[in-house]
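Trying the structure run again after the queue cleared.
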Amino acid sequence: MSYKGLAYLINAMAQVEGHLLLAGDGALREPLETLAGETARDRIHFLGPVSEEEKLALYRAADVFVLPSVERNEAFGYVLLEAMQEGCPVISTALPTGVCYVNQHEETGLVVPPRDAVALARAIQRILFEVGLRDRLSLQARERIQTEFSFPHVMDQVEAVYRECLGSMG
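Done. Tokens:
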């Protein structure tokens, strides 16, 4: 899962006045912990696996959620929707996938180039310290979830696709 770009986020934390919580586990944990020890170990915390309830509580408590993915394998970024639903502004990378559709730059969060720890650090610092930005992005993220990704809206879109397909057959 190196496509997640967590090494770039860990490197960014050397320049950020804040704490990073990493939830989950896997084969990359040990090398990421080693990297964290070389950069900002006292501010990077590995939580291991968390329950669904704990994950939602983490989103609600967080100042920002960062998805630093670096490859097209990150096709949509469902975790962005989860964070936004809880009112957490997000930072993601500019991938040619659905990630940029979910998180819209300066609207629901910030978008930075992939593989750029400096840009990640700057974006995190902006959300943490730019007056009013976090609250504005949080509100707009929730509104986007309610309008673009609500079940009725998505069902209407699916139905429209079916109608269009059926119409082109006749």
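The chain has a mean pLDDT of 90. Worth checking whether this holds up in the mutant runs.
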